[in-house]
Amino acid sequence: MSAVTPIRAAQEGSDRETGRDREAAALRNPALDQGRAGFYRPGTQPALRSVDETAEVRAITRGTVQAAMEVLAGIRPIHQLARRLDPRCLGNLQHRASLIRRELTRTGNPALARLHRNSTVRSVRVCEVADGIYEASAVVVDDVRARAVAIRLERSKHVWRVTELVIG
Question: Long-range contacts for 72-80 (Cβ within 8 Å, ≥24 apart)?
């Protein structure tokens, strides 16, 4: 068993730490390092890690495509995509969803009711077109068929926005 050292005693004894104690503390928490090169100094913020943009865009694409298919199925309100899609894409998706609903009520065709139900995104492929601009394709399978979805994402003020959405 080891004894617990009160905080005040630990702070008073910190001036006489050995180099080995300091290195061990730095390995546990680099922000606590007092003098080794390459580590953060006390009172400074650690640098943010760079995020793999391709993985981030792939995840955003998967979620956006899944949500768009749920809008077409009538199980998700379109306003939930308002922050991700630009106004033109949002309007096009809303128009397509309303056409599906209108045709379903006009004909009562049960095949239309199953058209976008239980959609699952099977795969996503991402390609960087330019700095901050990606195009992606996704394969979506539902109860009736498999379809392709193409999407274009652009970084706008540190937020990814969908500027093109084409559902096959």
Answer: 72/96, 72/97, 72/100, 72/115, 72/116, 72/167, 73/115, 73/116, 73/117, 73/119, 73/142, 74/100, 74/101, 74/116
Backbone phi and psi for residue 135, each to the nearest 5 degrees, phi listed first: -120, 140
The tens digit of pLDDT for each residue in 3-35 reads: 665 555 555 554 455 555 555 555 555 444 444
Distance CA 148, CA 151 (A): 10
- What domains, with CATH codes, occur in the chain? 1-49 (no CATH), 53-167 (3.10.450.50)
Length of the chain: 168
- The string of pLDDT tens digits covering residues 32-71 is 444 445 555 566 555 444 468 899 999 999 999 999 999 9
Q: What pTM, to 2 d.p., does this model score?
A: 0.67
